Amino acid sequence: NAGVTQTPKFRILKIGQSMTLQCAQDMNHNYMYWYRQDPGMGLKLIYYSVGAGITDKGEVPNGYNVSRSTTEDFPLRLELAAPSQTSVYFCASRATVGAGELFFGEGSRLTVL
Amino acid sequence: AQTVTQSQPEMSVQEAETVTLSCTYDTSESNYYLFWYKQPPSRQMILVIRQEAYKQQNATENRFSVNFQKAAKSFSLKISDSQLGDTAMYFCAFRAPGANSKLTFGKGITLSVRP
């Protein structure tokens, strides 16, 4: 029962470097989301996708990019990392029907120095 | 736009006692979905309980129950017989009807259970 899998769990980047956070789900969910959570704070939506080939911006998309080539995968790309992107990143997915609760990955802690 | 308000940033409860976490929301929709999520120190986001607005009966999951007051737009979480493992941040969330609607989260409340 893998659910939503995120990699890596931890990463340290230098300012200006780029990286991709991977997210995969095995529940055949159409909807996928990327959130960031700063220390002691709530969740802010970065990007989301309603199906393969379709993505859209959330509240805080600047400095990030996404793609959705398959139903299973929804990678988040950080270009030119900045200290303000130090955060914990969560990927989540949900089914099309029902109450629509989110299933979350375990999170990826990113530090930009 | 919908908003979710959790006005208490922190709460503390003695082990084995009962605690209630408050949540209010604002919407013009008549049908919607409400959720409570738990985030322990491990940071994993865990669904605690869900409530569908068209159901009058309050949802219950073991020691967790909600007091859903639709007219007052209130959705509080009651934790009975609190355990040390209940120490976590708790988020209230709202989702409007519609396939593409997104969850709106409150800012969360930090609950500490004292031994």
**What is the third-level CATH name, the topology of chain A?**
Immunoglobulin-like
What is the terminal separation of chain B in angstroms? 41 Å
Quote the beta fraction of chain B.
over 45%
- Terminal-residue CA separation of chain A: 35 Å
CATH topology of chain B: Immunoglobulin-like
SS element count, helices of chain B: 0
Which residue ranges of chain B are poorly predicted, with pLDDT under 50 across at least 5 consecutive positions? Answer: none
Counting H and I runs of at least 4 residues, what is the number of helices of chain A?
0
* Corresponding CATH superfamily of chain A: Immunoglobulins
Largest sheet of chain B: 6 strands, mixed
What does this structure look like?
- The complex is a heterodimer of chains A (113) and B (115).
- Chain A is an all-beta fold and 113 residues long.
- Chain A has strands at 4-7, 10-13, 19-25, 31-37, 43-51, 54-57, 64-66, 76-78, 87-94, 103-104, 108-112.
- Chain A has no helices and 11 strands.
- Chain A has a single domain (4-112), classed as Immunoglobulins (Immunoglobulin-like, Sandwich).
- Chain A starts with a strand and ends with a strand.
- In chain A, 35% of the residues are buried.
- Chain B is mainly β.
- Chain B has one domain: Immunoglobulin-like, CATH 2.60.40.10.
- In chain B, 0% of the residues lie in helices and 51% in strands.
- Chain B has strands spanning 3-5, 10-14, 19-21, 24-26, 33-39, 46-52, 60-61, 64-69, 74-79, 88-95, 103-105, 109-114.
- The termini of chain B are far apart.
- The model of chain B has no long low-confidence stretch (mean pLDDT 94).
- Chain A binds chain B through residues 31, 33, 40-43, 45, 48, 50, 58, 88, 90, 92, 96, 99-104, 106-107, and chain B through 33, 35, 42-45, 47, 50, 52, 91, 93, 95, 99-103, 105-108, 110.
